[in-house]
Amino acid sequence: MDYKDHIFVGDALSVLKSLPSDLVNVGVTSPPYNKGENKKGWLVKNVKYKDSSDKLPEEKYQENQVEVLDELFRVTKPGGSFFYNHKLRWERGYMLHPMDWVRKTRWTIRQEIVWDRQIAANIRGWRFWQVEERIYWLYKPIEKHYIGQEILSKHAKLSSIWRFPPERKNLHPAPFPIELPTRAIFSVMDDIKGLVIDPYSGSGTTLVAAKLLGHAYLGIEISKEYAESSEIRVMNCENERSGVLLETGKHTVSQTFSERKANGAWAGKFRPDYDANKQQIPLKLLEPKTRYIEKAVKKASPKKKTAPASDQKSKRSRKNLGGL
User: What is the rounded distance in angstroms from the CA atom of residue 55 to the CA atom of residue 48?
Assistant: First the structure.
């Protein structure tokens, strides 16, 4: 069976169990958060999905997520990655952290990335406004090489804090922006082409990003309505190329670390002309630049030696005697 460029309609775990091992190269997803369908804020209505419930006993929910992630581990090729978007939740004052179940999976957790959504769903004062979610970069080691290969500098420089607002013009109740899967896929795959999976494909954002980056895609979606609208969206993906280009345009560097080092340019913690013993001049907040330069010149100029107090006293005495 050809699994490329196909959206399977069905339960994520059931469909994953039917897939062969070592099939995909990378994946991105954001599962339902098990918010009970009754959690809402001043800015966001309670989230309800088509043809599925987001209201499970928390223990069952976490068990299901571990099973889904373990199946994703099986179907991912060695050396492959999976980006798992979730968030911190609170239930009657008790914090539920994604690490509670992610650590129980077969994956190596390569990094925890903070997604700064730049907007809070709830603006009440029970805690500081929660504007962030988490993205776990999960890695399937080749044999026992748990570190994996380095990603290129042009990708790594984007740091572990990703800042972009959520998608708003979307019928799905909880879509992430196309920049998110674009950054994840492009960073680990670069120009290599492969198969991208999203087991909760929803409105098809990951699939569109994969298509526009030149990859094949495999989606799983329990809602037939979302799956059908996703297929139409993928067919018209060129309408969204600007968003992908906007993101990939951020992945640039003038010279890599290795190139700077090879050319003899500064590539270390300290610059070649840095003198650790030289007194540094603090620049106060909002201090005029001219005043700062004057201070620098003054500190750099040699100071006149001041005579001891006893010498100065004797000079004054001699001067007074000379006047008599």
Answer: 10
Instruction: Give per-10-residue mean pLDDT for the chain (324 aa).
Output: 95 98 98 76 53 79 98 98 97 95 98 95 89 97 94 96 86 81 98 98 97 98 96 97 97 85 72 59 58 65 60 55 47
Helix and strand numbers, DSSP H then E, in the chain: 11, 10
Supply the pLDDT for residue 292: 56
How large is the greatest C-alpha to C-alpha distance in the chain, in angstroms?
118
Please state the pTM of the whole predicted model. 0.78
Alpha helices in 26-133 (DSSP H): 58-75, 99-102
300 domain-assigned:
no
User: Which residues lie below 8 Å from residue 318, measured CB to CB, with a gap of 6+?
Assistant: none
Q: Three-class SS of residue 50?
A: coil
**CB half-sphere exposure, 36, CA atoms < 13 A:** 9
Are the C-beta atoms of 82 and 27 separated by less than 8 Å? yes
| Residue 208 pLDDT | 98
Other Cβ atoms within 10 Å of 158 Cβ, number: 16
Q: What domain range includes position 198?
A: 6-260
29 in a structural domain:
yes
The answer as to whether 281 is a domain residue is: no
- The type of residue at 261 is K
Number of domains in the chain: 1
Look up the CATH number of the domain holding residue 147.
3.40.50.150
With a CB cutoff of 8 Å and minimum separation 6, the contacts of 244 are 178, 182, 209, 212, 213
User: Does any domain span residue 138?
Assistant: yes
